[in-house]
Design brief:
It is a single chain. By secondary structure, the protein is α+β, with helices and mostly antiparallel strands. It has one domain.
């Protein structure tokens, strides 16, 4: 089925391709370049102008990543089982099963955008991460520093003990490709390292090469990022997350009393974003740099 495309909406989306996708990086040479969301093709950094908004969150550069997965059992390097997460007591069940990391038991196809276990369709986003901070102490209270250090805490005004971290989007960059994922657990090793997660410090942990982010098998396969290798990552707002494999599963349908179908609206917006990205890929380097 084809959706009618409002000219103003499409023009606005196409015109903001370099910024709304969250792909525009700093002009510093050691930061990620502008990357088409599902391609390895790269272009030169977009110069900062008065019309280019400042990035909302800084990159955490050269962070060692380790691979973890839903349903992982305890080992010497990972003493905590992953059948539950810090915020989901039925993580395996809600996901739909064991997120087997064995490449032979996974679908990993850049052409179709399928990155998931072979034996079932996940009910949650298979592009998930863990970072070493938890904002809640119990179901009744937050940590004392949470409201002060989490940039979006006051915007959400959560009830006591209600996390504002679960589901938060991040962008991850590795060797010419970037992807997007959601924060779904705490680790590796620490759950109180706010100085690194929200500040400018390096990760506290010294285990696993000083790892500062856990990535899922789907992220590993999409980026070609092996456990122990380094990546860059940063927080992004929901509106900055472009169309991609990370949007295929786990985006819950929401319908309110007035009959508004937010799932249909979300799919329509993703359709427009896909068109925008396709148009952006057709632009020449000169056209991109003139923006």
């Amino acid at each position: 089925m084809r959706f009618p495309i409002p000219a103003l909406a499409l023009a606005s989306l196409i015109g903001s391709a370099a910024t709304s996708s969250g792909q525009t990086s700093s002009s510093a040479t050691n930061l990620p370049r502008v990357i088409i969301p599902t391609s390895r093709q790269a272009v030169q950094p977009v110069p900062r102008t008065h019309s280019t908004p400042a990035q909302l969150y800084p990159w955490k550069k050269d962070i060692t990543a380790t691979v973890f997965w839903i349903g992982e059992q305890p080992t010497q390097n990972n003493p905590t089982p992953n059948d539950k997460s810090s915020w989901d007591q039925n993580w395996v069940g809600n996901f739909g099963g064991y997120d087997d990391p064995d490449p032979a038991r996974r679908v990993a196809n850049h052409r179709t955008g399928e990155f998931r276990p072979k034996n079932f369709v996940p009910r949650l986003n298979p592009f998930y991460i863990a970072l070493p901070y938890n904002d809640v102490r119990s179901y009744r209270s937050h940590k004392v520093e949470a409201a002060r250090v989490i940039p979006w805490f006051r915007r959400f005004a959560p009830k006591p003990g209600k996390t504002v971290l679960k589901g938060r989007w991040v962008q991850i960059y590795h060797e010419g490709r970037s992807c997007y994922a959601q924060w779904e657990d705490c680790g590796p090793w620490n759950t109180d390292d706010w100085q690194y997660v929200f500040g400018s410090s390096r990760p506290k942990t010294r285990q696993n090469g000083g790892a500062g982010i856990d990535i899922s098998p789907s992220i590993r396969d999409y980026l070609g990022l092996k456990s122990g290798e380094q990546c860059h990552w940063r927080f992004v707002e929901d509106a900055q997350v472009p169309y991609g494999p990370w949007k295929k599963y786990g985006q819950a349908t929401q319908v309110v009393r007035d009959g508004t179908d937010f799932e249909a609206k979300r799919k329509y917006l993703e359709y427009l974003r896909k068109l925008r990205d396709e148009q952006y890929q057709k632009k020449s380097l000169q056209e991109i740099q003139r923006r």
